């Protein structure tokens, strides 16, 4: 098993970051995420907690020989459960791959929360575990290393793409001049 951990500060308030999260895909930095489908949503009227289950369709750019060995194609599926708590100002997303999970499991948890010292910033903590199944025991270390490096790269690219989404959100949120202001 391999472990990835990362933290990042976004220079935006939590309410903006949590709202922009729903517009994260598609973005030009993450063309591998093809579709995001909402499977289920539940809102607790007492707590205001919103739980959303989504299915992400991803096109993996993996060498064909690896896909043949794994018995799959480029299209992969990931299940994500998001929990947003407006009172605690947290957004937690847990995801796991569905495709090829019998060979390789990648579990990720990302949490966005209000910065404890600066309410105009949002902190993000991200962690993932990569585990090769017993069928890959001879190559498990190599497969886990390859997958972890790919995950690290995709996480960095994903953060860049999310920053662009946040910048667009800020522009959209700014008041637009009216005819009277000319």
Q: What's the CATH H-level homologous superfamily?
A: START domain
CATH-scheme architecture: 2-Layer Sandwich
As for the CATH topology, it is Alpha-D-Glucose-1,6-Bisphosphate, Chain A, domain 4
Strand order of the largest sheet: 1-7-6-5-4-3-2
Please summarize the sheet with the most strands.
Answer: 7 strands, antiparallel
Taken in chain order, the helices and strands follow as EHEEHEEEEH
Domain PRELI/MSF1: 1-174
InterPro entries: PRELI/MSF1_dom, Slowmo/Ups
Protein name: PRELI/MSF1 domain-containing protein
GO cellular component, one term: mitochondrial intermembrane space
Task: Provide structural commentary.
The structure is a single chain. By secondary structure, this protein is α+β, with helices and mostly antiparallel strands. The chain is built from three helices and seven strands. It has helices at residues 14-20, 64-70, 140-173, and strands at 2-10, 33-43, 50-59, 75-85, 90-97, 104-114, 122-132. The chain has a seven-stranded antiparallel β-sheet with strand order 1-7-6-5-4-3-2. The model has no long low-confidence stretch (mean pLDDT 87).
In short:
The chain has helices spanning 14-20, 64-70, 140-173; strands spanning 2-10, 33-43, 50-59, 75-85, 90-97, 104-114, 122-132.
